[in-house]
Specification:
Elements lengths: L1 E3 L4 H8 L4 E4 L5 H6 L7 E4 L9 E4 L2 E4 L5 H6 L1 H6 L1 H8 L4 H6 L2 H6 L7 H7 L3 E6 L2 E6 L4 E3 L2 E2 L5
Parallel strand pairs: 1-3, 2-3
Antiparallel strand pairs: 4-5, 6-7, 8-9
Length: about 160
């Protein structure tokens, strides 16, 4: 298994276009799946070093939260706690303090677990995801990402 640490979203998109590549953000679900042998990707693409995916950026009518931002980081952010208390509360339900420090917003959504505590709160908050791929970027409402247990509308690349 290859382990790659891209420095940009564009580099991550290129790596994820290769067959059987998986994103590693917090790793709280993926590492369990790897250890249990339920998934065997050819390449792990660690997105934690991509600056814009680790940031919370406030704009006048918009909050941008990077896919690799942890639940703990959300809870510690004063504006997020004030504007999206349901999302923060949902992340506080996820595992232990240690898990909350690693579990990422993007991973909680993209693993499409029926137990993904943040997803209903994100839908209620009318959250929209900015998805990057080989063809550019597109905006997708959170409710259109998960299509079933463990399945998403996201495509390879």
């Amino acid at each position: 298994m290859r382990y790659e640490v891209p420095a940009s979203v564009a580099a991550a998109v290129d790596l994820l276009a290769t067959p059987d590549a998986r994103v590693l953000a917090g790793g709280t679900d993926l590492l369990v799946q790897l250890r249990a042998g339920r998934t065997k990707p050819a390449t792990l693409v660690d997105i934690k070093k991509i600056p814009e995916l680790k940031q919370i950026h406030l704009e006048p009518d918009l909050i941008r939260i990077g896919a690799a931002v942890s639940g703990a980081e959300l809870g510690e952010h004063a504006t997020i706690s004030k504007e999206w208390p349901g999302v923060v509360e949902a992340f506080e339900l996820i595992g232990s303090t240690q898990v909350q420090g690693r579990a990422s917003l993007g991973g909680n959504l993209c693993n499409a677990s029926p137990a993904a505590d943040s997803v209903p709160a994100l839908i209620a908050a009318a959250a929209v995801c900015l998805i990057a791929g080989p063809g550019g970027q597109r905006s997708v409402p959170v409710e259109e990402i998960i299509t079933g247990p463990g399945k998403t509308s996201l495509q390879t690349g």
